[in-house]
Specification:
heterodimer, A: 354 residues, mainly alpha, two-stranded antiparallel ribbon, disordered C terminus, B: 510 residues, alpha/beta, 6-stranded mixed β-sheet, 19 helices, 23 strands
């Protein structure tokens, strides 16, 4: 009983539960969902697809988690994603040696550098000019696609480059390279955040900016850095996106990905009010969203009702996660109000994050 | 007394993760009576009030209002049952008018929806009933905190509340405002309202209250008519200690020996900020405790914030040691070994959702920058040292600081600043809203630190405390320093009060 309780009280329990339910539903409707086959040294199957396809959202959501922890939000990630794809592909496309590893490296690094600048711009508006994050990043959300259009001259640039294609379609140790890249980045960022004091200071700034300032926390630098990081991560996601379709599509690359990312962060247990954050929660949140997206095609939901279907599932997931909603639904045994319950949840979130 | 019982809490128990906050506590409120709830920080006063006002659900026990058993699942339930609450921080809408605040949800309706004329007229009536003559159409934000609290009480009369809970209503009020509040509270008593009054000021308890309930460590100590409970007995019951012991703490907190003269740690010349503080000159020697005395709004806090760089000065210089230094932000101040503990513990002090440990090391960590994390061993050393030295309870560094009582939060904050090893520590109201025991402990710590050579700038609205601790006192009024009293036989509260009250001294300084 107590063991069961400890598991159900774990902050990651409900997101993981939702993920399992989605997988079970898919499997019941089509048992082949779980099957994994080996072909040319790589694993293939629906589950592997989910991992591969989740890589872009994973990178974007990672940045979003840290931004949200500072009480901010970054709406520009989708547009930034489009910019990096446009930059990289234009460089490769205009090169005489598109298949050359050097060319591809330069293209990728340039793409990331440009998105770093865009992230720094966002951070500047938020931390120095003190524009509200939602407005500050809204600017680039619109302008970013314009920039991408300028770079591609309004065309959908397509290229052939084996090394570049390898990023999204290749396999390493049997797993999709894209997924491995995302996981390595997630682990690296988690390590930096928790091995240095960045995580704690981020949370301090998010929970109480004024008290943090009086304690000498350099909140401007920290907030600035987080937006810059979010930009680069979106840029990396853009590289993976363009590598997947081998084309730069300024209009559709990363469209609405900011909303999926925010959802993933919230499902993972990080509050939009800022403060405590959980990267592991976000990872689970991303898998939930990606599995849901995959299920929609897999279950043959008619395209017309796809958004509605997705919305309904997300609402159910959020309700199930909410302590208050569960109390109302299932039992009135736990007669505690929201405040102390939230305290417990947060204490545990922290334990997980460490 | 044969007054009717209005609200009755019996055998109330509430637990939080790891803490039993209340254990079988009773509280009985009678009509036409002002009831004081007393206890140290962490005794369970706030928790009990929150049980009565529906903020917390209770684990065990019964709540009876007007003879009917109640089970509150939210503050709205408690309000419907006739329980009104006025908090230290007023919970009204500052952007609405006084009248709208008083009548919110009870607006007078005419044939065309809400009749604002009738609503404001009724609000004016309610305000007048409490002896308040303010325009109900004025914005709430345009009034002082004291008046806002009175407006909150007026709202309670409109709601026909049977019980009025006043949680630390006087912490931020000056003497005149307290009188005004008391007049209103007495009027409520005459109307047969049961008043629950919580305050740390013993004088006010004895001036106002008819009956006292004492809590200690989440348990009920007892309920007494005020006239049967002399002051020292009340303190002994709150602390659970013998009275002599308390005297001893008082002795130890006496001023440390006057430091030898040396290079001042701090010297300001014409430091000023428009609209906040007139130019002022102060000096503080190593090992010296310098007090700021003055009423609320006299510029005490504003001056301290300029020294620390929390607000930017627009004139004058700061000299730290023998160098003129530009202190432009808290960050530079900390780098120059200044530390500042704000008067507003909740919004400028604690990081509520972080642990005690994280709150303790925050300033040290900020000083090092985010990349170089304070090593675990050093963190442990800081935690161990300050939690023991300051007696933080519970002694669990991994508890969230929000779950600690006010006094213990204050100790953690004190530890945070001391961990930065400052040369000058600015303490703005370090003992506000905390109980007698913790207060004496903090005073003792301050005196000991000064004896070890730390310079302290001490700000408090309790003049006795300033006088007792300080070697030298600057007296402030109307945003300027109007006098300086050095240590000696003539340093006493009356002298300061006389200085503040003396009109001519202000003109001399002008």
């Amino acid at each position: 009983m107590t063991m069961l309780r400890r598991i159900t009280r774990h902050p990651l329990f409900w997101p993981v539960f939702a993920l399992v339910v989605l997988i079970v539903v898919n499997t019941i409707s089509r048992p082949s969902f779980l099957s994994i086959t080996v072909k040319d040294g790589g694993l293939y199957g629906s589950l592997i697809d989910i991992l591969r396809n989740s890589s872009q959202l994973m990178l974007v959501s990672l940045g979003m988690t840290l931004v949200i922890a500072t009480r901010g939000i970054d709406l520009s990630v989708g547009a930034v994603l489009a910019v990096s794809g446009a930059v990289s592909l234009t460089i490769i496309g205009s090169s005489d040696t598109p298949g050359d590893l050097g060319t591809v490296t330069v293209a990728i690094l340039t793409g990331l550098l440009v998105t770093l600048v865009l992230g720094i711009w966002n951070g500047f508006l938020v931390s120095v000019v003190k524009i509200q994050p939602i407005i500050a990043t809204l600017l680039l959300m619109f302008a970013g696609r314009g920039i991408a259009m300028l770079i591609t001259k309004g065309q959908i640039t397509t290229i052939t480059s084996d090394p570049y294609r390898y990023l999204a379609s290749g396999h390493l140790l049997g797993l999709p390279v894209a997924f491995l890249i995302a996981i390595v980045v997630v682990v690296l960022v988690s390590l930096v955040v928790r091995r240095t004091a960045l995580g704690m200071l981020l949370e301090a700034v998010g929970i109480n900016p004024e008290a943090s300032r009086l304690a000498g926390v350099q909140s401007r630098g920290i907030i600035w850095m987080v937006y810059a990081l979010s930009g680069v991560l979106a840029g990396l996601a853009g590289i993976l996106y363009s590598s997947n379709i081998m084309a730069a599509d300024a209009n559709n690359a990363g469209l609405n990905i900011e909303l999926d990312a925010i959802l993933a962060v919230v499902i993972g247990g990080t509050s939009l009010m800022g403060g405590k954050f959980s990267i592991s929660g976000t990872v689970v949140g991303v898998l939930v969203i990606q599995t849901l997206t995959t299920s929609i095609t897999f279950l043959g939901v008619p395209p017309a009702v796809t958004p509605l279907f997705k919305a309904l599932v997300v609402i159910v997931i959020c309700l199930v996660q909410s302590q208050k909603a569960r109390d109302m639904l299932f039992s009135r045994r736990r007669h505690r109000t929201a405040a102390p319950a939230a305290v417990v949840a947060e204490a545990e979130t922290e334990a997980v994050a460490r | 007394m044969s007054n009717d019982i209005v609200a009755e809490l019996r055998d109330i128990s509430i637990s939080f993760p790891g803490v039993k906050a209340l254990d079988g506590v009773d509280l009985v409120l009678r009509a036409g009576e002002i009831h004081a709830l007393m206890g140290e920080n962490g005794a369970g006063k706030s928790t009990l009030i929150k049980a009565l006002t529906g903020v917390y659900a209770i684990d065990a026990g019964t709540v009876t209002v007007d003879g009917a058993a109640r089970r509150f699942t939210g503050t709205a339930d408690a309000q419907d049952a006739g329980i009104a609450t006025v908090y230290q921080e007023v919970n009204l809408c500052e952007n609405l008018t006084v009248g709208e605040n008083v009548m919110l949800g009870r607006e007078a309706r005419g044939p065309f929806g809400i009749s604002w004329r009738a609503t404001h007229a009724r609000a004016a009536e309610a305000l007048a009933g409490l002896g308040l003559r303010i325009d109900p159409r004025s914005l709430l934000a345009s009034h002082s905190l004291a008046v806002q609290q009175l407006v909150a009480i007026a709202r309670a009369t409109v709601l026909d509340s049977r019980v009025l809970v006043l949680d630390e209503p006087t912490s931020s009020l000056d003497r005149g405002e307290v009188e005004q509040l008391f007049a209103v509270v007495r009027r409520m008593r005459e109307r047969g309202v049961a008043v629950l009054f919580v305050s740390h000021f013993l004088d006010q308890i004895y001036e106002l209250c008819d009956r006292i309930t004492v809590l200690r460590n989440g348990r009920l100590v007892g309920e007494y008519p005020t006239e049967d409970l002399p002051r020292h007995e009340l303190i002994a019951k709150m602390l659970g200690r013998e009275v002599e012991h308390l005297d001893e703490i008082g002795e130890r907190a006496e001023r440390a020996a006057l430091p030898a003269a040396g290079v001042p740690v701090l010297r300001t010349e014409n430091l000023a900020r428009k609209g906040a503080v007139e130019p002022f000159d102060i000096t503080i020697l190593p090992g010296e405790i310098v007090g700021f005395a003055g009423l609320l709004g006299s510029g005490r806090t504003e001056s301290a914030r300029l020294v620390y760089g929390a607000d930017r000065a627009d004139g004058g210089t700061i000299r730290l040691g023998d160098r003129i230094t530009k202190v432009t932000s808290p960050r530079t101040a900390l780098a120059h070994r200044l530390a500042f503990s704000s008067e507003d513990r909740r919004s400028e002090g604690i990081i509520a959702d972080l642990t005690v440990r994280e709150n303790l090391v925050l300033a040290v960590q900020a000083k090092r920058g985010w990349w170089r994390r304070v090593p675990k061993a050093q963190q442990d050393a800081i935690v161990e040292r300050y939690m023991t030295a300051l007696g933080v309870r519970p002694a669990d560094p991994d508890a969230l600081i929000r779950n600690l009582s006010g006094g213990n939060q204050q100790k953690v904050l004190l530890g945070r600043w001391l961990a930065t090893e400052p040369e000058l520590l600015i303490l703005d109201e370090p003992t506000r809203g905390i109980d007698v025991g913790a207060k004496a402990e903090i005073q003792t710590v301050i005196a000991d630190l000064a004896a070890d050579g730390l310079a302290v700038l001490f700000i408090s609205s309790e003049l006795e405390e300033v006088v007792r601790l300080s070697h030298r006192i600057y007296v402030l009024r109307d945003r300027r320093i109007i006098g300086e009293i050095a240590d000696g036989a003539d340093i006493d509260v009356d002298r300061i009060v006389a200085l503040i009250a003396d009109d001519r001294s202000g003109e001399k300084a002008a």
